[in-house]
Amino acid sequence: MPQAAAPRSRRNVTPLAESFTHRLHTLQKLTDKVTQDAYLAATGLPLGEGRCLTAVGAFAPLSVKDLARRANVDKAQASRAAQALVDKGLIEKTASTTDARGVVLRFTPEGQRLWRRLMAVVEARNQQIVACLSDAERARFDRILTRLVAHARTVADEKG
Predict the structure, then answer these.
(1) Radius of gyration from C-alpha coordinates of the chain
(2) Which terminus of the chain, N or C, has fewer Cβ atoms within 10 Å?
(3) Diameter of the chain measured on Cα atoms
(4) Is the Cβ–Cβ distance between 20 and 94 less than 8 Å?
(5) Contact, 46 vs 53, CB < 8 A?
(6) Which residues contact 106 (CB under 8 A, 6 or more apart)?
(7) Per-residue pLDDT averaged across 66-94, rounded?
């Protein structure tokens, strides 16, 4: 029986648990769980709908495609969340003046009120997440995170 080839040296390979992407994903999953619970308790909205509502508040008027990009969800998720928010009377869809098949998403008065409550949750969650950092560390982390996001967008745009 032939001998299996010996694995290549792993001396220069970062262990998965120590890799940046693994730790970043772990942070995202942990914060999503707590955020989901906070969104439900404060507004009754699940995480995906809450994210979409905050994006409408920050960037309206939006198309569904724009909503997906701004809320960091795929187009199908954005479409489902938008429809759920319409069904709940929180946003309204109107025909786009620039795209015959498109719609534009905007708040209803009730959506505007719920958005304000949700933004208080977002602010509290952000403070909880970085509470273990000093003010100087927070400022430095913010600058680094801004650079990382900009770089990741550039890489994604080059690939996409």
Answers:
(1) 20
(2) N
(3) 74
(4) no
(5) no
(6) 56, 60, 61, 91, 92, 94
(7) 95
- Output the six-digit token pair for 76: 């199908």
Evaluate whether 49 touches 82 at the Cβ level (below 8 Å): no
| Across 19-28, 49-58, 90-99, least confident range | 90-99
Residue 122, pLDDT above cutoff 60: yes
Contact 14, 21 (CB under 8 A): no
Rounded distance, CA 40 to CA 118, Å? 10
Pairwise CA distance, residues 68 & 30, whole Å: 22
Helix (H, G, I), strand (E, B) or coil at 143: helix
Q: Which residue has the tokens 């995202």?
A: 28
pLDDT of 8 strictly over 80: no
Among 86, 78, 76, smallest CA distance to 111 is for 86
34-72 pLDDT per residue, tens: 999 999 999 999 999 999 999 999 998 999 999 999 999
Residues forming beta bridges with residue 95, ordered by sequence position: 103
Strand partners, 44: none
User: How far apart are alpha carbons 39 and 36 in whole angstroms?
Assistant: 5
The DSSP secondary structure of 47-69, one letter per residue, reads HHHHHHHHHHHHH-SB-HHHHHH
